[in-house]
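Quick one, tokens below. Sequence please?
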């Protein structure tokens, strides 16, 4: 086993253990391997190990990797500028960071899965996200836009605070979105340091990078 294969296997076991501890089926949870700043060769090695869900947060790095490894599901997980929206929608299968009406309008007409990014407060790093009270109206706007498929919600836990309460708050917003669109069942939450808390709160999609890939190279 290579070091990468060992890391992947270890995280998969930890995810399964956390799911079972929460009374959930591990098969309900999708692990997205975030490969930002990593070389295409690492993505190809992960693909050979069976990984099919990859996350990127920078265009055009994401575009180039999606072109190099097309037999995969590509998740755009970073904050998205409105003027880059249509370019990203050409290669991304899922956009996790829809957080404002202008972005919905820019994406309208594209056949792409979208998640509504929720601001859980306290991140202070320009990560984006709509306030919880704005999310139901944003969900309605997505449904009114042609092409877009509303899948659920996404959030990043705030820094400097326990992630559990934040993810519990996200679960409440997810319930509100499902009231608007019952099929929008995805909850994208949890990264390398807090995915166990996210699973306990009902996350269906995890965005895990360094726990699998190791430290990131410089940008």
């Amino acid at each position: 086993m290579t070091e990468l294969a060992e890391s992947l296997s270890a995280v998969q076991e930890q995810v399964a253990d956390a799911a079972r501890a929460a009374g959930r089926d591990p098969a309900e949870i999708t692990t997205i391997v975030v490969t930002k700043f990593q070389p295409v060769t690492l993505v190809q090695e992960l693909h050979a190990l069976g990984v099919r869900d990859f996350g990127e947060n920078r265009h055009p790095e994401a575009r180039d990797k999606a072109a190099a490894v097309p037999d995969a599901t590509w998740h755009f997980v970073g904050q998205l500028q409105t003027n880059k929206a249509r370019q990203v929608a050409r290669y991304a299968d899922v956009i996790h960071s829809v957080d404002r009406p202008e972005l919905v309008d820019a994406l309208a007409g594209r056949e792409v899965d979208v998640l509504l990014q929720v601001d859980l407060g306290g991140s202070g790093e320009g990560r984006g996200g709509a306030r919880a009270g704005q999310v139901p109206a944003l969900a309605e706007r997505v449904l009114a836009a042609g092409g877009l498929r509303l899948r659920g919600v996404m959030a990043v836990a705030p820094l400097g605070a326990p992630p559990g309460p934040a993810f519990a708050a996200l679960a409440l917003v997810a319930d509100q979105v499902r009231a608007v669109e019952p099929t929008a069942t995805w909850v994208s939450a949890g990264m390398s340091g807090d995915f166990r808390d996210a699973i306990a709160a009902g996350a269906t999609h995890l965005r895990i990078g360094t726990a699998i890939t190791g430290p990131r190279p410089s940008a």
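The first strand starts at residue 30 and ends at 34. Strands lie at 30-34, 53-56, 73-76, 94-98, 112-117, 148-154, 186-188, 205-208.
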